[in-house]
Amino acid sequence: MTEFVLLGLTRDPHLQKVLFAVFLFIFLFTVLANLFIVTTICLSPTLSAPMYFFLTHLSLLDASLTSVSTPKMTFDLLYQRRTISWGGCLTQLFMEHFLGASEVIILTVMAYDRYVAIRKPLHYTAVMRQGLCQLLVAVAWTGGVLHASVQMLFTGDLAFCSTNVIDHVMCDFYSLLEISCSDTYRLGMVVAANTGGMALLIFFLLLISYIVILSSLKSYSSEGRRKALSTCGSHFTVVMLFFGPCVFTYTRPVATYPADKLVTVFYGILTPLLNPIIYTVRNTEVKNAMRSLLKKRVT
Predict the structure, then answer these.
(1) Closest by alpha carbon to 199, among 82, 49, 97?
(2) Torsion-angle region of residue 8: left (phi > 0), alpha (psi -120 to 50) or beta?
C-alpha cells in the first residue's frame, strides 16, 4: 500500500469552500496567537515565574500540533480526491502522538506547579527552582517521543489487502486498524492502553489534585481565592478541552464512528486556538505584558 484515500468531512462543494476559509483563518490565527504568547513571555521580565515558562512550551506544542494535520485537512477541501502517502500517514501519526503526549505531561506539570504555589506558597521558590522546571520540560518532550515510538512499533507491519479508503479527515490509528487485514487485536490493545488508559488515569489524577487545591482555599483571603480560582479555572478548562477528545477516541474497542471526524476537528483545530485565548483573557499579567510589548513595537 503506497497511499490512502481520505473521505474527509463533506463532499458538498459549497460547504467545502466555506470550511476551507474558516479552517485557514483559524489555523493562521492559532499559530500567530501561540507564537505571540511565546514572544511575550520571552521578552517580558514580569513573566518570569515557572508557570509562564511552562506556558511557553504549551504554546509551542499547540502551534506545532495544529500544524501537523490542519494544513492538509484544510487544503484537501479544495479537492474531490484526497490522498496521503504511506510515509506521510506514518509521519502524521507519529507527530500527533508525540506532540499530544508531550502536551499531556506539560499540563500535568502545570497542575503540579499550581499545587505547590497554592498548597505550599512559602516553599514555592525553593521547590520550583529553574533546574527542576527545565528537567520537567525535558521529561515532557522525551516522554512524547517514547509514547509515539511505542505506538508506531507495530504499525509498520500492518497489511492492507482489500481497501485503502479511510473514512476520516486524517490518518488515525483506529481507522488504519479497521481497514487492515492483519491481526490488529494486540496493537489495538496497545493503542487503547498507551493512549486512552494514560489519558484517563492522568485526567483523574488532575481532577483529584484540583479538588485538593480547592479544599485548601478556605484559609485564603477573598482576593487570594479569586486569583487562585482564576488561574486554576483557566488550567482546568484547558485540561477538559484537551483530555475530553482523547478519552472519547481511545478508551473504547477498535472502531470508528461518524462523530470521530468532528472530535478530530475540535482537537486538532479548535483546542490549540482556545488555549491561548483562555490563558490570555483570564490572566491579567499576560494581557498587560502583551499591551506593553505592542506599545513598544508601535513606538
Answers:
(1) 97
(2) left
CA atoms within 13 A on the CB side of 217: 19
Nearest to 76 by CA among 229, 265, 266: 265
Question: What cell does 242 get?
Answer: 484537551
Domains of the chain, each with CATH number or no CATH? 3-298 (1.20.1070.10)
Contact between 19 and 10 (Cβ < 8 Å): yes
Contact 40, 286 (CB under 8 A): yes
SS3 165: strand
Tell me the DSSP string of 136-161.
HHHHHHHHHHHHHHHHHTTGGG----
Cross-strand partners of 3:
85
**Low-confidence residues in the chain, pLDDT < 50:** none
Phi and psi, residue 164, nearest 5°: -125, 20
| pTM higher than 0.70 | yes
What does the pLDDT look like over 72-100, one tens digit per residue? Answer: 999 999 888 889 998 898 899 899 989 99
* Interior angle at CA 281, CA 279 and CA 282, nearest 5: 70
pLDDT for residue 298: 61
Query: φ and ψ at 258, to 5 degrees?
Result: -55, -35
